Structure formats: C-alpha cells, structure tokens
Amino acid sequence: MKPTPIAVFLAFAVALFLLLPLIAVVPVSFTPARFLSMPTDIWSLRHYQALLDNPAWLQSIWLSLRIGILSSVIATLLALMFSLGIWMFRPWFGSLLFGFVLLPMVAPPVVSAITLYFFLTTLSKVNDIVAYDTWVGVAIAHAVMIAPFAVVMVSVALAQVDRRIDLAARGFGASVSQRIFRVILPNIKFGVFTAFFLSFVLSWEEIGVTLFITSVDAVTLPRMMWMGLRDNIDPAIAAISVILIIIVITVILAKTAITFKLSRKS
Amino acid sequence: MKSDKLKSALLLGPLVLFLGLAYLVPFLGVMQWSVTLPEPGFSQYGKAVTDPLIQSVFFRTFRICLIVTVCAVAAAYAIAYVWVRGTPAQRLVTELCILIPFWISVLTRAFGWVALLSNRGLINTWLQAAGIISEPLTMVRNEFGVVLGMAHFLIPFAVFPIASAMRSLDERVFLAARGMGASRLRIFWSIFVPMTLPGIFGAGLMVFVFALGFFITPAILGGGRSVMIAELIYLRLFQSPDWGLGAAISVILMLIVGALLILMLRLVRPNKMLG
Fold first, then answer.
1. In angstroms, rounded to a whole number, what is the distance separating the alpha carbons of residues B55 and B128?
2. Does the distance separating the beta carbons of B7 and A176 come in below 8 Å?
3. C-alpha distance from A55 to closest chain B C-alpha (Å)
4. Which of A197, B2, B55, B84 is deepest in the core (most CB within 10 A)?
5. What is the pLDDT of residue B96?
6. Which of residues 35 through 74 in chain B touch A, CB cutoff 8 A?
7. How far apart are CA A83 and CA B11, in angstroms?
C-alpha cells in the first residue's frame, strides 16, 4: 500500500515546516545591520567577522569543547560499566536500578536544573573546583544529565550481542575482565562510540541546566547564544547558527552516504 | 559465587553512586527547601495551589501542551507514514528532514523561528515588500510563536514511536482487506490507524511530558508574556528569590510527570516504543 499523492503532499508540507526555521537563519546572518533584519541590497559578512573578533565567542567554544569531552568521558565510562554489570550478571533488582539511572532523562529538565543547582551551590561551600559557575562543575552536571542516554545506547548495543559467545568464553574459564575486554567490548565498540558521540553532542548543546548553574565565569556556547537572544537580538547568533547547522548537515549527509555505500556492498 | 557479587557491585556501583550523590540526594534537598523556606511547613504548597497567578500559569501550560501535542502528533503521523511506506527516494528525503532538525540545538531552532516570524523577519519583510500588509504581523512574543516553536521541536521525537508502530504492522492484513473489496481510504481509517493507536498514544504522552517541562523555547518565543511552569520556576529562583516556592512548584511538576510516566508504562511497553 503505497502512500497516495495527498499523503505525500502532507508529509512534504511537514518536512518543509521542519526545515523552514533553519533556512530562515541563512539570509539574516548576512544582514549589514546591527539588529535582526533581512539584508536588502548589500549582503555582509560582518557578523561572521564579529565571531572571530570577539574573544568571548572563541572562549565559549573552547569551554564547551572541554566540558563536552570531560562530561561525555565520565558518562560513557560509568554507563558502560553499569550496562555491562546488568548484562553479565542480570541481578534480580536490575530493572529497578535501570529505572533509577534513567531518572535524569525522564524528569522535566527544569526539575533536574534546580536539583543540580542545589548540588553545585552546596558543594561550592566546601571547594572551588566542582562548584557553581566552574567548568568542572558544569561538566559533572552534564555527566548526570547525559549518563542515562549513554546507558540506553550501550544497552541497545549489548542487546544485539549473542549471549552464547560470552557463555562459551565463560565455559572455557575466562575471567570477568577477559570476558569484558576480549569478548564483549570488541562486539559493542561501535555502540560505545555512538554513546560517546551522542553524549558529547548533548553536552555541547545543553542549555536548560547550564542556565541554572552558571553565571559569569563558565559561559558555554549555548549560554553565550542565550545571552545574545534574550535582550537585543544580536545577528551574530544567526552567523554562529548557520555554522552549527552546516556542521550538522555535513555529518548527517556523510553518515547517510556511508550507510548507503555499505548497504550496496552487502 | 561471592566474587561474582563483588564484581557486579564494582561494575554497577559507580554510576548508581554517582547519580545517588549528584541527583537523588540533591533532589531530596530541593524537597527540603520546599518545606523549610522561608518557614517550616507546607505553606509554599498551599500557595502554589491557591495563588491565582500560579494557577493561571499551570492552566496556560496545560493548554499550550495539549495544543502542541495534538499538532505535533498529527504532523509526525503524516511524515512518519511516508518515511515508512514511501518510495526509496521519498524515504530518504523525509528521513533527512526528520534527522537534521533533530540534531540541531533547541536554541538554534528557536532562533530560526524568531528570524522567520519577528517584525523584521523573513515573513513580514516579504509580505510588506509584496504589498500584502502595511504593518508587520505580530507572530512572536505571544502564544502563537510558542506553539509553533514547541511543535517544531517535538515533531521528530513523536515520529520515532509512531514509525516503529507502523513498521511492525503485518502487510497481509491490508492485502486481505483489499481482497475483500475495501477502498484505500477505508483501509487507512478502519485498519491502519487503529492498528497504530499504541504508537499514537505513546508519542502523544511522550510529547506532552516533554512539553510540560519546556523552558527555552517558550522563554525565547514567548518573550516573557506567556510564561509556562518551567520559566516560572526559573523566575522564582533567580529574579524574585523565593526558593521555597520554586522548589514546591518543581516537586508538584515532578509528581505530575511521574504520574503521566506510570500511565505511559501501563499503556505501551517501553521496549516496543524504542523499537
């Protein structure tokens, strides 16, 4: 049962709706004016230049990179250990624990935000490193938020592993660490990489929680964009948005092309 | 096997401990705020439920979330249908149109709507240049902009459970209906749609739950005029320091979402939704 022309028309209308705001950003980024507007006669690159000239933008990008890497390493590592534990030992309370670690993912972001605000402001009283408005503090908070996603990704990868190869290794007397490093990990390395990549992207884009736990020092890229969006809208936001959109489109097209090639080979 | 127990604890322990210390304990702290600030007792909860201003924010949030859910699920159904059952080319195009917005940050997407809808934005500039309107239409800093932006953000999320419900259908059912003389329209409405109902409800509940806690999109597109619960919590924390009330509203929001999640688990098995 192929879709009728009406169904196809409706689907493409939705598709256009989904792309529309992403397209609208492009002309605005070339406006010669200081405020949000459409370029009329002259198209200007001044807002792209502003990204390079204003050190705050580059600083925020560098900060977001550091936070993204630290938080996704922590989250992926903890999630990997946890998922392996559930998969290998299948404890009777496993589903309860699984539900618990998914909490930050299902709770409303604003509730997580006030919770992590409480966490970091409390820690601020005893140390300066993992604290409110510090980069390590933000990375820890991001690790809390993205760990559930990493758990889901790694568990999905583990669900596709044939249990019998692990049983065979065990039957031949392999220790737990041998089973992990020589049998299971080689089979899920792609899933672990995906979990790390997704974690990084989620941290890189995180704004809901970041807004609550930073003020003037730990200004991440999304926080920087937020500040430019709230008051007088700065067209530099359009320029940085265009760059981010181009990165996403390139990655997705590359991935689609690779999977297409692989599927033709097999 | 004592060593097995130890090893499983070594694997499971770190994440559980980490989230226990960095999430569960602080949440209990927030609950404590809600009953101790500014004075001990449940007065903040009383205020959260009876204050007409907060009540109106709750009602507005529910109304907006309901509208957004219906729009997002309907749109997701249309695009998921072609994504699952279209020709290979149609499938590729719809897939890209679902995935690209999905990976772009909420800020960029909200800004895109501002660029499109604001007084000097794309639509107003074109309409004025074409002489159709003389004064710019007000499309942001009101509920219209908020609904559009939120629906836009949530459509890709709604697509996945609906598409997985559509994929699991048995093709032979439609052949049988065809053989018995049903029209295409009849097959769609009497067989296809009812069989994907679990996906529709799953997607609807998920979108509604997501929408309830939304903060960024309403704050940018609502421009402080149509405040929703999440923004109210932010304001209570940072603008008019009233931590007890902010914490109490957070706990209420958490309870509502918890109840909806339990309902969702009853209605659709989660492993089915993830596909």
1. 40
2. yes
3. 21
4. B84
5. 92
6. none
7. 8
